[in-house]
Every structure is written in structure tokens, then in C-alpha cells.
Amino acid sequence: MFGVILAGGSGSRLWPLSRELYPKQLLNLYAEKSLLQSTFERLNKFIPAENIISITNTKHLANVKMQLGKLSENSIIISEPISKNTAPAIALGIKYIIENNNEDETILVVPSDLLIENNENFIQTISDAQTFVDKGYIVTFGIKPNYPETGFGYIYAENNIVKSFTEKPDKQTAENYIKNNNYYWNSGIFMFKASAMVQELKQYCPEIDSIIKNIKCSNNQIPFTEFDKMPSISIDYAVMEKSKNIAMVELKSDWKDLGSWKSIYEVSPKDKNNNVFVGHVLDKDSKNSFVYASSKLVATIGLEDTVVIETEDAILACKKDKTEEVKQIYETLKQQHDDTQKVHKTVYRPWGFYTVIAEGKGFQTKIIHVNPGQQLSVQSHNYRSEHWVILSGMAKVVLEGKDHILSPGHSIDIPVKAIHSLQNPFENDLEIIEVQKGDILSEDDIIRYEDIYGRV
Q1: CA 98, CA 110: separation in Å to the nearest integer?
Q2: CA torsion angle for 166, 168, 171, 174 (degrees, to 10)?
Q3: What is the pLDDT of residues 303-322, one digit of tens each?
Q4: How far apart are CA 5 and CA 112, in angstroms?
Q5: Maximal CA-CA distance, the chain
Q6: CA atoms of 177 and 184, how far apart (whole Å)
């Protein structure tokens, strides 16, 4: 069996904690490990690491590599040059598996943002589904609904054969569905033989089938010019809602789609007043509320059924039953080209992280933290100069081929277009202040020459 993890989503309903460049699957929302890492470990209990393919986006590749690299050296990551939804991503995963294996393999496709804690029952359900896969069906996994959720898709199935899909019904329709034992929530998990899904894509979405034939996945580098031709379409719309060859197996384990702040609230431990408080929160007389403080003290009084999320640069406050609408805020910020949709003040990289502490016309100031034994790429900038001051630890700076060892209090200037690298080959953490100056101060203004994390 092969596993395909879909790890390229934006997590827009979990803004402001989830951002375009650091989405929810990379966050530690519920446990010590991220949702992506938990998903990988779940599959790795019954699928070898070298048979697990994670499909992500170019802008998330470095962070996905960093997180999965902590779990296994053998995991495979394929990077889409542009997001095109789940159908092209699944087609990429299938193409990679076919190119590297001669057998008609069973493939399990899972999202990277689900909370499943009963792994034993999950594995048993996957085993039960193999019977249908061997008969040539594409299997979807249904969740028995226990309330009229309007944020999920629904499956109607009789004797394990799917008759119809419904995408996010209104409340009245959802209430009618849960009265009928043949309706299930759509889990977003699929299982099939490679040949079965290839055949259905060829029949119901021939555009994907024709484009994928021109793409080679063996080197994990997907050409933009070809992939950009792909339609942006979900696997539900491309195949599942059209095919007559779909079986459904009820997922017997627990299952939570952590797609909204309401769903995070539901799975979190609560106090005597049914509140969930995370971080530095001071409360008086609130009930049934969720308050998340990431960098500041948040004081609340008399809230009821309310969600408050604080980050370094944004605050969300809404009624708990309105959390599905957070996506609209995210999309509005995107249309306005507002960076609070795109990136945090603190940005994580494979080598550590940086925090923007001040910015204005022509300048930007950051604190850069480099973990022991790590290093930034050998790079240059066309539009900005940089001035580095060592705060703590020891720095090795390579500037135009010359090494400089700097201790706290020392500084160095990096001119425009100078080839340089910041490195920490020492045992302690390294922190520096970086002051950028220039007309263009963008993360896009990085020309990489060498990089131990494969970003060249």
C-alpha cells in the first residue's frame, strides 16, 4: 500500500493563526506535533515511510521538509509549483507511484489536517475497505453524523454503494439528513487501486489525464508550464460526484476536521464554565468561550459563546457559531494584498525562525534565530543591503568567500548583491538583529546559490 498526504491547503478558516505561508497543517494546534506530523505517523504505523508521498506547495516545501525530516529520512515530498486543488494533487501522487512501481498498487489518500486518535480502529477500517478496493471500487470513508453540520459534505450510500454526494447543505437539509441512517459526513479520505482512479479521471476529467501524461514526477520537480495548465478542481467535483464506481465504508475511529475555531474548541479540554483558554488569558465570568493568546495578555469579561484569537499582528473576535465565516475575512485580506493574510510577524524556516520587529519606508528590522548546527543558504539580494548585529551565541558569516567569526556585540555589513551566508556551526542558539535597507524589501529578493535544505 501507498499513502498520499494532501499537505498544500491554506487553512483560511483558522486565520489569524493559520496564514498562507504557514497554514494549519504545520501548526501544533492540539498536540506536541503538527497535524501534518501526526498524519504521517498515523500512516507510518502500517505503511513504510518510503511509500508515503506528501503533496505540498512550493511555498510550503521547506517547512514540510523540516517537519517530516524529524520523523523519517525516507519520506517523499512532491512540490506543486502552483496550487490547483485536490484532483491535480492526487493525480500527481498517482503518477509518481506508477512511474516508480510496476504493480497496480493500492493508494490511500488522506488530508493532513484531521484529528484521529484511535489509530487501531482507523487501521482496522482501512483493512476492511481493501475488499472493495480489490473489486475495483474507489472507496470513500463516511462518518456517522451526530448533529446537523452545515460545513461538511454528505454522502448518501445504500449497502456500501454511494448513490449521491451533497456539498455543505443548509441547516434544514442537514437536519433531515441526520434522521436518515443512509447519510454520512464525507471524511475526505479515499482509497483505490491506481488503475481505478486513472480510469475515472480519464472518463470524467480528461483535461487532467491529458496534462499529467506530459509530467514526470521521478525527480520531484514539477514543471510550472505544464502544471499551470491543470484545472483548479477538487477530487469530489472531478470524479467522486460523477463516478458510478464509488463504495463507502464507515470510518469506525474518531474523526475531527480541525477546519474552524469551533472545531478546535470542541476537542479541547474545558474548565467548569465550558471555556477554553490558551496562553496568557485573564477572565471573569465568561462561559462557553474560546480565547487564544499567542503573544500578549488577553483580558475578557462576561463573554458567552465567543471566540477571541490574538496573534502578534491581528485579533479575531466572533460568535462561536460564525467561525465558518472567517474564510471571508481571509479572502478579503487577500484581495486587498494585506500581508496579515499571508505571513506572521514570526516566520519559521528549516534553520530556525525570524521575527519582524519594526518596518517602515525603506527599512525593516528583524530578530533572526538560527538553531545550533544550522545555516541559511548562500545568497545575495539585488535591492537591499543588510546590517547584522550579534545578540547572543556565535556566528559564522561567509561574505564574498571570506569567513568571519563574530561574538555578541560585533556587527557586519552585507552590501547589495554581495554573496553571503549566516551560519551557526556551534552548540548554542544564535540570535542576531538584522536591519534591511532598500527600495524593495521582499522575501522574493533572494538569489540562492547553495542550500542544504534543497531550495536552490
Answers
A1: 18
A2: 40
A3: 999 999 999 889 999 999 99
A4: 6
A5: 73
A6: 8
Which band of pLDDT confidence, cut at 50, 70 and 90, is reported for residue 220? low
Three-state secondary structure call for residue 125: helix
pLDDT band at 405 (very low <50, low <70, confident <90, very high): very high
* Segment 293-309 mean pLDDT: 96
pLDDT above 70 (res 289): yes
Could you count the other beta carbons within 10 Å of the beta carbon of residue 389?
Answer: 16
pLDDT class of 302 with cuts at 50, 70, 90: very high
- Asked if residue 364 lies in contact with residue 438, where contact means CB atoms within 8 angstroms, the answer is no
Phi, psi of 381 (to 5 degrees): -130, 135
Q: How far is CA 346 from CA 19, 31, 106, 343, in A?
A: 11, 20, 40, 8
For residues 137 and 246, give the distance between their C-alpha atoms in angstroms, rounded to a whole number.
6
Question: What's the start-to-end Cα distance of the chain, in Å?
Answer: 32
Residues 6+ apart with CB under 8 A from 103: none
Q: What is the mean pLDDT of residues 263-292?
A: 95
Burial 276-315 (b: 16+ CB within 10 A, else e): bbbeebebeebeebbbbbbeeebebeebebbbbbbbeebe
CA–CA gap between residue 348 and residue 369 (Å, rounded) = 10
pLDDT, mean of residues 291-305: 95
